[in-house]
């Protein structure tokens, strides 16, 4: 069978599975809709959390980032993985002990303020929409390449599938769909890695092949070969870095605390029966995520080596079919500047003739390596599973923020459970529509700021949650001031140095030499400083709130719950 038939078959089967789970998991209560009735097994929650976390960015883009950034791309691995350690140690068990439906719910009750709740809702919606727009676009790109439909048609198909299982089953439907999606995406990621590792290094385990020698008998190490290819083409060595130490530190920290503050990840720990289960879920999720994250650097090195050796200095008229297919998507382009008919891929921008979008490295990797058609189709199904799983989690955060934290808690407190459930489904449908719109009409600022969603989460949620758990003296005035100042400062820096607003600026103008991707660390520190200062200058929280903080911090009580 050809690639397209395999893709229709595998993607069709996975979609039938997702819809079947949605029908099975149809819910009738708000508790099931928001937190799956708090009945999810820790193992299933670990898999769902891993799928929720490993978005199109992890599945499609991370290996591409490392392939083109080399050593510098390692900050994403360290930051995202470290974020889960922070979650396990500092947040997950205590948030589960608090027992609320959403992050704004925690902030609203902990800081005894609907203003704090509203600020948290606004932060959650900004962070989630920033993130989800990229996921829906990723769905469209995968469909466009492998099913040969337009990107917009691909987005529509993705919207229908997500709408079905998010609106029907809420968190319960999303959780069990994400379990299936994890199995699909990790299988799809690992199978080509095994094949290509064996082809290149003779070792089937990609993590071992990554540090091993080439299978051609030369005794040359893979990374040594890649360094050599890079230098010959005028690039810096693959294993060398160009970022300053302070920027690497800032980006890593921003990604860590941003991960720990992302509302769609945190809410997953409300779905398990006990506090101990929340901690176990984090452990399982770390294990499941580590499988993909330790493979990504190997995929990057394999893909970059194969790409350079396949296309560099080759006749354009003789390039393989995959080259022309990716050209049609606009993610790969060749400009024969010297009109010699050969592809020059070099570091010098004036001489370079090949432009490659880093997002295609994972998707095109099996084709470049001449793997069987079913493996290529499997990667397409895996990419869709990754994008859809994260999109569904984010959409649920948006819908619960509207139906629970705004409608139920503030605008219509007397609303019945049935009425709240209807609002939750209407809000989910609305969120799917808006996310689809951004997927079809991606404004420049959305594409540019997807990676900065972590900075926004670091600048807003993380300090408020951390201080809410560990600082009894923290009051509503301090938390609200910190969140507003942190979020505004991060938005200002993003708009100025990423989007060219407020007079723009270049790398030399960055504050403390820190890039926009790492500035979430600075905004977080400002948030913490403002929050602590204001809280100490204003009235202490009520006694019942102090007792509440003591209660959620007692480990023994937490275990016995």
TrEMBL record:
Keyword set includes Cytoplasm: no
Keywords: Cell membrane, Membrane, Transmembrane, Transmembrane helix, Transport
Topological category with respect to the lipid bilayer: Multi-pass membrane protein
Residues spanning the membrane: 6-25, 46-69, 75-95, 115-134, 146-167, 179-200, 248-270, 282-303, 374-400, 421-440, 446-470, 477-495, 510-534
Location(s), subcellular: Membrane
InterPro entries in the cross-refs: Na/Glc_symporter_sf (IPR038377), Na/solute_symporter (IPR001734), Na/solute_symporter_CS (IPR018212), Na/solute_symporter_VC_2705 (IPR019899), Sodium:Solute_Symporter (IPR050277)
Keyword Acetylation: no
Pfam families: SSF
Similarity annotation: Belongs to the sodium:solute symporter (SSF) (TC 2.A.21) family.
Protein name per the record: Cation acetate symporter
